[in-house]
Amino acid sequence: xxxxxxxxxxxxxxxxxxxxxxxxxxxxxxxxxxxxxxxxxxxxxxxxxxxxxxxxxxxxxxxxxxxxxxxxxxxxxxxxxxxxxxxxxxxxxxxxxxxxxxxxxxxxxxxxxxxxxxxxxxxxxxxxxxxxxxxxxxxxxxxxxxxxxxxxxxxxxxxxxxxxxxxxxxxxxxxxxxxxxxxxxxxxxxxxxxxxxxxxxxxxxxxxxxxxxxxxxxxxxxxxxxxxxxxxxxxxxxxxxxxxxxxxxxxxxxxxxxxxxxxxxxxxxxxxxxxxxxxxxxxxxxxxxxxxxxxxxxxxxx
Length: 302
Fold this sequence. Notes:
Elements: H1 9-21, H2 24-31, H3 35-49, E1 54-57, E2 60-63, H4 65-85, E3 93-99, H5 101-118, E4 122-128, H6 131-139, E5 145-148, E6 157-166, E7 168-172, E8 182-183, E9 192-196, H7 201-212, E10 218-223, H8 226-234, E11 239-242, H9 247-251, E12 255-260, E13 265-273, H10 280-292, E14 299-301
Parallel strand pairs: 3-4, 3-5, 8-12, 9-10, 9-11
Antiparallel strand pairs: 1-2, 5-13, 6-13, 6-14, 7-11, 7-12
Helix pairs in contact: 1-2, 1-3, 1-4, 2-3
């Protein structure tokens, strides 16, 4: 059975101090010990290892190759000790964020990047989901913060207003309606229209607004998100009526946006748990969004 090797931290400290200072007197000052204590530690280490670690060269002690190899092997040990004794590293806080595609794919991606650049010790996990899934996830406390544009009051969640917007009509730049400052529902009569799918409550609102003035556009396509609807407009397929937040700030160079004269309004909410405190990192991200959200003619702070 091999004999067990024991280790002495004071001996290793004496070795490193002597290698860096070159003399026992300087090593002793560095360690706050006497010269004889340093010499005894080196002699004990040499005896235990059965190796010569230092050779006298004039008034200095020159480390042997054995000492150099041992010192290198000790680097991880002393680096670990430095981390233990040194100031604590900032803990990496994680923000569990969930949002629908309209907010996640362009808007939140940009703001997450600027948030993490300003706070490199933070970490963000982004999930893209439907509004119903957002509510369930916050209820079950699987996520810290949600963002959505539908008012869905549920037990266990808190909706905090973030932005409000008026309905806007997205129009190809060369379209005749682009010459108007405001689009009225009757202006859409006979026009090619890209509508949101029927699962959106806003679709029923728009249908009612158009019916009230006997405006009958020609629906040529449906889309499940405002980004998709506006991208179809950009392709020249027709016009659409959407929540301009946040799509207008990303597509205003490609498509004309005009105020749509109707009672249709939109709100965007922060979604948090009613039964657990909002984590500090989530509150910091909310402040970041409020501070850095661009102003547009169609949206305002809630």
